[in-house]
Amino acid sequence: MTIEGMNHFTVISSDLEKSKAFYSEILGLHAGYRPPMDSTGAWLYAGDQKHSILHIMAERPMPEQAPGVIDHMAFTASNLQSAIDTLKQHNIAYKLNRMQELGVWQLFFYDPDGAKIELDFAAEEPAPVE
């Protein structure tokens, strides 16, 4: 077996429309084809990619304890200043780190249901005006 890449993450949502709006307005993902299923949800896509990268499941109770050990989901992104401006416009708290060794920017924040998101930006991106 050879792993060729990450396929998608799945998050549970207490409000499907709120989650779709968050991932659309904040991350720029868009809803696309989702095959018929017995459950309610959405599949979100980035740009013109042909496979979904985030699945949202709704009408399922939020777990009392986190199932498993996944800490966060990370996406490669560009335009750090725009990302920070968007988070500020939506009053979303964030933490920005610069990895000293690589110079890469890491931007952390949470979705409406508490899923931790990391956006990684190239070292060449200018320092944002906060």
From TrEMBL:
This protein's record includes keyword Lipid metabolism: no
Residues of the VOC domain: 5-122
One Pfam family from the record: Glyoxalase
Gene3D superfamilies, sorted: 2,3-Dihydroxybiphenyl 1,2-Dioxygenase, domain 1
Keywords, ordered alphabetically: Dioxygenase, Oxidoreductase
Keyword Coiled coil: no
Domain of life: Bacteria
Gene Ontology MF annotations: dioxygenase activity
Name under which the protein is recorded: Catechol 2,3-dioxygenase
Organism per entry: Nitrosomonas marina
Lineage, top ranks: Bacteria, Pseudomonadati, Pseudomonadota, Betaproteobacteria, Nitrosomonadales
